Amino acid sequence: MKNEKKLASLENHSKAQTKEKPVSKSIQIMAIQNGDLEFVQKNLNAIKASLFSSNKKLSENTTRNVKYYFILVLSEIVQACTENGMGKPEAEEMRDNYIIQADKCRKKEEICKIYIDMCLDFTQRMQEIKVKDVISWHIRKCIDYINENLNCNLSIKTLAKLVGLNPSYLSRLFKQETGGSIKQFVVLARIQQAEELLKNTDLSYYDISVQLGFSSQSAFIAVFKKIKGITPKRYRMQKANYSSDSED
Fold first, then answer.
1. Helix (H, G, I), strand (E, B) or coil at 135
2. Which among 1, 55, 9, 46 has a CA at the least distance from the CA of 24?
3. pTM of structure
């Protein structure tokens, strides 16, 4: 009997050792408010763990406790982001949207998925705000034009003509100030918008590919899968399942 207890204790200890160490709330919020997307993406498992490791007991119900902690951290993130350049109306709109999503959840795992989406969403938005603060007028104009004309020809030559710079110089300047190429930025902007269209509309994959300037439906599907790791069809099904599960 003693040996069995000792073995069980060792097994539990081993499991505990393999668990991801949670990121402290202060470090997590600092990374988000600084727009450090690389840190947040690399530490997603640790960020997930932080949601379940809180010592705060806000409810006897474990799922409700996780939900309340989610809202608590979300409020702190909103405050930190507004203090670092995000507009208050935008931050509050994002907050309210995520609270509504979390409120529909009936399982801790569902809240966790929304929590990760929320952290990535705020981090990416803060990264965009930080970029606006440090880049030149030429690059800012290129970025604004790209985001507003995703269905158009967004070649380097087109953008260079827009801002009156030599294409080669614009290419170097863009990479120097944003850390990536124009082509990479355009692809990521299109995929980000594709996610919104897949989640919030019934547009066909062909219509989405046309609306976002892809050469064909197959090109859109291939690029989406390369960036997101799953096909647009699978992505849409997953988001639809999360929504229907939350409403049950």
1. coil
2. 46
3. 0.51
